[in-house]
Amino acid sequence: VDVNLTYNSGNTDSRNNLIFADTHLKLGDHRHLGELTFRRDQTDGVYTKKQDLFNYVYSWLFNDPWYIGGVATYERDPIKLLDHRYVLGALVGRDIFKDSRKFLTFSVGMGYSHQELALESDGGATGLWNLVYEHDFRNGDLTLFHNQNLGYHFYGDNNLVIKTNTGFRCDVYKDVYTSVSFLYNYETEPAPGTVDHDSTLAIGIGAKF
Fold first, then answer.
1. E strands in the chain
2. Do residues 163 and 146 lie in contact, with contact meaning Cβ atoms separated by under 8 Å?
3. Is the four-CA dihedral 120, 150, 32, 80 of positive or negative sign?
4. Is 85 in contact with 74 (CB distance < 8 Å)?
5. pLDDT tens digits for 174-190?
6. pTM, whole model, 2 decimals?
7. Is the peptide bond before 78 cis (omega within 30 degrees of 0)?
8. Distance between CA atoms of 164 and 130, rounded to whole angstroms?
9. Residue 205 near residue 178 (C-beta atoms within 8 A)
């Protein structure tokens, strides 16, 4: 869990609040991945960022290295005129590398998405792509990771949405680690008058169990 709180006062009063949680859980042949982002940036009493994102991916290794699973995503960003967007889908995937040092897996699927963007409500089929990569260095004390989620919406303006999380974790004491994550979001068809990308740098602390 990464928590970043910044308050500035003087000629410009500002508040920057970021909570980012990234959790991996494996129980036998069942795997769970959860991500939560809550961000509020405020300058002189005016919000400049209000972002909420929840992403959950489940997979079942029915025939190792092959698996099936599902995904559920909810996000909102009223500053970018996105009242809500949710995605529900089914996935099929395969593990490429899975040893003591590195892990690489990818999945593809189809689902349904609904959104309200710039006061217009629309929904339909969505193509899905997910990739997870981790590589351990220095006997596991340092881990490089990259998570990538892609959704292509077959409705409206055929928007392509890409979300990535790239960074590293470094052990500091036993199973406690510090992490640095760079979150990047991009879409090809944003609301009129808004930019097509967002980026966030998160620094935090976590634990392995």
1. 2-8, 14-27, 30-43, 46-63, 66-77, 82-98, 102-117, 120-137, 142-153, 160-173, 176-187, 197-207
2. no
3. negative
4. yes
5. 878 888 888 899 999 99
6. 0.87
7. no
8. 10
9. yes
Check if the beta carbon of residue 72 is closer than 8 Å to that of residue 91.
no
Q: Is the pLDDT higher at 208 or at 130?
A: 130
Contact status, residue 75 vs residue 84, Cβ threshold 8 Å: yes
Cβ atoms of residues 195 and 188 within 8 Å: no
Under DSSP, is residue 199 helix (H, G, I), strand (E, B) or coil?
strand
Q: 103: pLDDT confidence band, cut at 50, 70 and 90?
A: very high
Whose tokens are 């217009």? That residue is 120
Cα dihedral 136, 32, 68, 84 in deg (nearest 10): -110
Residues 162-175 pLDDT 10s = 999 999 999 988 87
Residue 194 has pLDDT above 60, yes or no: yes
Compute the half-sphere exposure of residue 191: CA atoms within 13 Å on the CB side of its CA: 18
Q: How many residues can be counted in the chain?
A: 209
In the 3-class helix/strand/coil scheme, how is 119-160 assigned residue by residue? CEEEEEEEEEEEEEEEEEEHHHCEEEEEEEEEEEECCCCCCE
- Whole-number Å distance between alpha carbons of 56 and 54: 7
Structure token pair of residue 163: 């979300």
